């Protein structure tokens, strides 16, 4: 992939400096710009066209959710940085088009790995947090009526979607369904195409909103 260009958006200068030092210690990552608010993040992202934006949620002038919505529309991947006590903002950011999220106290190597994963076009999900977030904000909302797109999925594609929503990786799905990695990748692509979804994060939100899976099951995995 070459050198990854990253824009850091956080209203705390100390946090931006810390993230920059961590990322620029890697030979394949370059921080091309820093923004102190969402409005500046959008403007700088449109100027520099980074491979990824690290986005704080609560910032002045334009918050991270609004900025994420604009950047997602521009096709710029956004990785949200947050804390446990900001669940509602994270869920809103995922719905706005974020490609994933990490906690601000994440180990350095996890931050670096997350940047590489999202920049490569994948979605970064923390399964246990994702289930808790989506359960919290969908349990009081009636599930949407299953659309024609859902009914158009084959039984196998539906199985794959459910496992994606439970936070399983392609390799884990392959093991669970006893399929080859290439076959699983094909199924994932078809699910996203049929449901008109951008990535796995949107697939998780879609599955929970449409009642295909439910969080907080006794085994911690959710159930159909």
Automatic annotation (TrEMBL):
Name-wise, this protein is Response regulator
Q: Where is the HTH luxR-type domain?
A: 146-211
- Could you list this entry's UniProt keywords, alphabetically sorted: DNA-binding, Phosphoprotein, Transcription, Transcription regulation
Q: Which Gene3D superfamilies match?
A: 3.40.50.2300
Q: Where is the Response regulatory domain?
A: 5-119
Native source species: Actinokineospora guangxiensis
Q: Which residues carry the post-translational modification 4-aspartylphosphate, per the record? A: 56
Q: Which InterPro entries match?
A: CheY-like_superfamily, NreC/VraR/RcsB-like_REC, Sig_transdc_resp-reg_C-effctor, Sig_transdc_resp-reg_receiver, Tscrpt_reg_LuxR_C, WalR-like
Show the PANTHER family listed in the entry.
Answer: TRANSCRIPTIONAL REGULATORY PROTEIN NARL-RELATED, TWO-COMPONENT RESPONSE REGULATOR
Where does the source fall among the domains of life? Bacteria
Q: Which Pfam families match?
A: GerE, Response_reg
């Amino acid at each position: 992939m070459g050198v990854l260009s990253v824009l850091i958006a956080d209203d705390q200068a100390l946090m931006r400096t810390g993230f920059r030092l961590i990322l620029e210690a890697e030979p394949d990552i370059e921080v091309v710009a820093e923004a102190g608010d969402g409005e500046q993040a959008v403007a700088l992202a449109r100027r520099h066209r980074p491979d990824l934006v690290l986005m704080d949620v609560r910032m002045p002038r334009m918050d991270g959710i609004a900025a994420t919505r604009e950047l997602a529309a521009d096709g710029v991947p956004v990785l949200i940085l947050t804390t446990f006590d900001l669940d509602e903002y994270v869920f809103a950011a995922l719905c706005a088009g974020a490609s994933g999220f990490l906690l601000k106290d994440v180990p350095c190597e996890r931050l670096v790995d997350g940047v590489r994963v999202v920049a490569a076009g994948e979605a970064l999900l923390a399964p246990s947090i994702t289930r808790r977030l989506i359960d919290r904000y969908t349990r009081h909302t009636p599930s949407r009526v299953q659309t024609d797109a859902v009914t158009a999925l084959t039984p196998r594609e539906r199985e794959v979607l459910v496992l994606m929503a439970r936070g399983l990786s392609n390799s884990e799905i392959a093991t669970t369904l006893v399929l080859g990695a290439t076959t699983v990748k094909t199924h994932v692509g078809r699910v996203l195409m049929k449901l008109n979804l951008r990535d796995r994060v949107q697939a998780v939100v879609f599955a929970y909103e449409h009642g295909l899976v439910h969080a907080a099951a006794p085994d911690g995995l959710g159930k159909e």
